[in-house]
Amino acid sequence: MPTLSPAVPPGLARSATGALITTIRSTPGVVGRAASLSAQLCAAVTGRSDLSPGRGDKRFADPAWTENPLYRRLGQAYLALEQAISAAVEDAEVDWATRERARFAAGILASTLAPTNTLAGNPAALKRVLDTGGGSVVRGGRNLVRDLRRHGPMPRSVDSAPFQLGDNLGTTPGEVVFRNEVVEIIQYAPSTPTVRSVPLLLVWSMVNKYYVLDLAADRSFIEHAVAQGIPVFVTSWRNPTKDHAEWGLDTYVGALVEAMTAIQEITGSERIGAVGLCSGGQLLAATMGHLAAIGDDRVAHASFGVSLLDMSVPNVAGILLHPGLVRAAGRATETAGIVEGKHIGAVFSWLRPNDLVWGNWVNNYLMGNQPPAFDILAWNDDTNRLPGALQRDLLAIAQDNLLAEPGELRVRDSGVDLGEVSSDVYVVGAETDHLVPWQGAYRSTQLFGGEATFVLSGGGHIQHLVNPPGNPRSHYRTGPEPGPDPEAWLQSAEQHQGTWWTHWAEWVATRSGEERPAPARLGSDLHPPLEPAPGRYVREA
């Protein structure tokens, strides 16, 4: 069976490992903890341990982990080691950024040591070998060779073959009505007899492709917004190559402002609403700060979701904020010109190694199965590259918290002060978001000069975004006007069943002007339709 292992990006691995060593050295009572671990291991080996896997830990679901004495002892010894590694990080006296890098390294170390990653240490895989007469070993070897050829040292997470853009992904009717060198803008066909007069532009991340907002009928955020009578447009960013290495934040802000102007001409509206999502939220905030600095108030209202503007709140981006790693990343992008999307995806996968790395390893290679066919995973596997200049700009924003410091970020020769932005803002956080902690999302409400609304959704980073009406387990919280303390807001918040989509749509509707007859055609004489959605840029590999 395979003896290779998935690879962590080298610079990140060095930074995280260094942080883990520093953190363990800073943990009080290291000698006592070592003695405690030795006692736990001894108890496991002699059958006296009471350790058990955490609820939902799929690695130890097979009955052999409780019924077979050898496997029970092996599992308990591993759990003792895993808990010791985690406790050493959590109890250390270090700053939050060092702790995040240490957590990252500890998670990789602990997950890699799991016995379930090997054939001998995985009773379910051994049973699979017997049940298939060795067929699972043969299929697992074939899967490994295929993955190494096509994906490098990371196991495939999804079978993307059943999903095709324009067929069963990104199917809401629309047209590309604007295209410049950087971005396409898709306008969606109205589905109601009347629409609001103020259009809405969805500004999606530059790292991924936009169609997670339009996965499938009845699960599409775009479809839902259109059904509320909102004129919807969305950014579809070009997938840059080395020829675009110098595209930085200024480039993307300029492209976005040009797109906004086109949307205003198409709709005849002097103002425009916007939604910034993920890194698109940072781009939208920078654009609004630039517009405010030059006296341009075209953005009537703005919403922010899965987006972190204030980096002072502890978050997983701390793993990237070591000065040496930032410098190394800068040198790498200057040499390569671009950052491959698969490398960005690998970093995010290692944030949840048991689920997103080793779970795939076991499924593909030890069990000999094919990866699952799931549309969200297919979208996640379809990444964009980042221009080197933009990555350097985004790292600088994160490292120095430039969006939260008035005047520290300069965009197109103007200083950005979000406090000068008078637009009303709507901010969404998610309870279990592992990338953007909800307290960090909440901080965005304190940065802008207009009226702020905060909503806390159930679910995680993408789960709360793909959150259509009808799911009985969906819920969200609303509360009073957000003040400085997110925990105080939470204590006063009220929980509602359903999705935040409906609350958001009502908020947008009250700020989107009067109703008028829906347009008979998309685009305009100046900006005629160029091709049907999902367009050209989203298909670029």
Q: How would you briefly describe this protein structure?
A:
The chain has 541 residues and is α/β, with parallel strands linked by helices. It has helices at 10-25, 30-45, 64-67, 69-90, 96-112, 123-131, 135-151, 221-227, 249-267, 279-293, 323-336, 341-350, 353-366, 375-380, 388-400, 438-442, 486-492, 500-509, and strands spanning 174-179, 183-188, 194-196, 200-203, 232-237, 272-277, 299-305, 338-339, 386-387, 410-411, 414-415, 424-430, 452-457, 475-478, 494-497, 515-517, 531-532. The relative contact order is 0.14.
Structure, described:
- There is one protein chain.
- This protein has 541 residues and is of the alpha/beta class.
- It folds into two domains: 10-153 and 349-379, no CATH class; 175-316 and 383-539, Rossmann fold (3-Layer(aba) Sandwich), CATH 3.40.50.
- Helices cover 41% and strands 13% of the residues.
- It is built from 18 helices and 17 strands.
- The chain has helices at residues 10-25, 30-45, 64-67, 69-90, 96-112, 123-131, 135-151, 221-227, 249-267, 279-293, 323-336, 341-350, 353-366, 375-380, 388-400, 438-442, 486-492, 500-509, and strands at residues 174-179, 183-188, 194-196, 200-203, 232-237, 272-277, 299-305, 338-339, 386-387, 410-411, 414-415, 424-430, 452-457, 475-478, 494-497, 515-517, 531-532.
- An eleven-stranded mixed beta sheet has the order 15-14-13-12-7-6-4-5-2-1-17, sandwiched between helices.
- A hairpin with a 2-residue loop joins strand 10 (410-411) and strand 11.
- Helix 2 (30-45) packs antiparallel against helix 4 and helix 9 (249-267) packs across helix 10 (279-293).
- The longest helix is centred in the first third of the chain and has 22 residues, at 69-90.
- The radius of gyration is 25 Å and the shape is globular.
- The mean pLDDT is 92.
